[in-house]
Amino acid sequence: MDEHFLPSCLARKEHLDYECKPIYSLTQLLKWTPNETEKQLFNNVPDMKQSTALDGPKVLLCHDMKGGYLDDRFVKGCEDKDAFTFFHWSKIDHFVYFSHYLVTIPPITWTTAAHHNGVLVMGTFITEGDGGAEICKVLFSSEEVMHSAARRLVDVAMHYKFEGWLLNIENEILEEHVDLLIKFIRLLTNMMHENIKGSKVIWYDSVISSGKLKWQNELNSLNSCFFNECDGIFLNYCWKDEHLQRSLDFSKQKNRQYDVFVGVDVFGRGCYGGGGMNTNLAINKINQFDLSLAIFAFGWVHETLGKENFHENQQKFWSSLELKTRRLFCTLPFESNFCRGFGKFYFKNGLIVNDREWCNLSLQDTLVTNYGSYCIDDGFEGGGCLSISESYDPLLECQILVPANGCLIFILYKPLNQSICTNIVGKHDGSEKKLILYPLSLEKQNKLNFLQDYNIITEVGINGWNTATFWLKNEDIEVINGIYVTAGGKEESKTSLLLGKIKVTRSRHM
């Protein structure tokens, strides 16, 4: 993609050819120092958008796609609308970028998209096989080396603007080194917490307290020494009901049941239900035990079903999982152009300004919670728009306090001759309330001035897109929990609407 279409934070010419790469060796890690060009680039990665995490079991999503660092490693993206992407951010709490290199640094594209949607991002530190065993002998040869490695991992996370590490030691550890391994986990976790707010270090179920490589598929006395020193454990995939029950019982003793992430391999390797489109069977089983969930290798959809119908298959796969919304946006303003980070075209103000296919997760916007049908043949800004014909699910689930002056909701939509209304679900005086809002009636010039003042658009009816403006009073609803959009003023209308943008902001005029 041309420089013109990159986010402003990524559009400097010296950044266009930048590629995100892992750290390949322990020597490289120990000698690592910040790069100034990288610093300029990654300083512009957005902070995690503020949201309210819901109670209950958490969801960790672990990337594993053909070894990693494919088209996603390029800052400028690629010219393939069917490249591997992800947009169901509201269904997860943590995102892990995974590869089999020693230190996996999440590419800026993934970190940017995740942060836009309030999701914590983690890299991976992995050792495996005979080579991994040799690395661990050096790593734990002295406290000095161990401490230096932990310090560098924290520095790397701070530099590349992500918030955690998955520790995956899949090789045997010398018995005399186990204590240093435990100390390494404790040190890394504490240093991450001290330097990065909300950071997480999660241990993968692999070696046990003797140093032997022996996957447990549960939390128990053989691996709890590692779990005790960090923020959670990612269980191996070959569990049965009894493993989950023992994990639940053991973790409850420590009041940490939601820090146990039960692994599910979408490729189905040794996993309950067989993975693939039956992944929901494993998830439903885990839900019965009220433990957290770790989904591994969701690239299965792209790798096995092909890229030609990837986006349709991706939607089918994630819909089958029936995951609940995990986070609610809670601050104003909230704004989204619904862009999922790919397209046949790139739109600005409803016009095509780039007619080549593209994919770049950095251009993915903050996404609403009802994904609907995504249209890439039209759009107002970005790669496409939402097509909505039914309103059974809210466009946006949220937890937004309505200011004393109320708030305004702007929605850009097509067709121009279609009427539109919003249904607001929220709370007033502690009770649930539902309210139907109709657009404000404004004379054309007043409407133009009004829209310009709120930085919406510069014209009324621009390039076939209209703007509906809704005013929600604090005296009617104090907290917004859901925003529904319907056509024709009828709650169950089948009329299709194209939605190009939504903005919810404080009212300054009313």
TrEMBL record:
<dbReference type="GO" id="GO:0033925">
    <property type="term" value="F:mannosyl-glycoprotein endo-beta-N-acetylglucosaminidase activity"/>
</dbReference>
<keyword id="KW-0378">Hydrolase</keyword>
<comment type="similarity">
    <text>Belongs to the glycosyl hydrolase 85 family.</text>
</comment>
<dbReference type="InterPro" id="IPR032979">
    <property type="entry name" value="ENGase"/>
</dbReference>
<dbReference type="Pfam" id="PF03644">
    <property type="entry name" value="Glyco_hydro_85"/>
</dbReference>
<protein>
    <recommendedName>
        <fullName>Cytosolic endo-beta-N-acetylglucosaminidase</fullName>
        <ecNumber>3.2.1.96</ecNumber>
    </recommendedName>
</protein>
<feature type="domain" description="Cytosolic endo-beta-N-acetylglucosaminidase TIM barrel">
    <location>
        <begin position="69"/>
        <end position="345"/>
    </location>
</feature>
<keyword id="KW-0326">Glycosidase</keyword>
<comment type="function">
    <text>Endoglycosidase that releases N-glycans from glycoproteins by cleaving the beta-1,4-glycosidic bond in the N,N'-diacetylchitobiose core. Involved in the processing of free oligosaccharides in the cytosol.</text>
</comment>
<dbReference type="GO" id="GO:0005829">
    <property type="term" value="C:cytosol"/>
</dbReference>
<dbReference type="InterPro" id="IPR005201">
    <property type="entry name" value="TIM_ENGase"/>
</dbReference>
<keyword id="KW-0963">Cytoplasm</keyword>
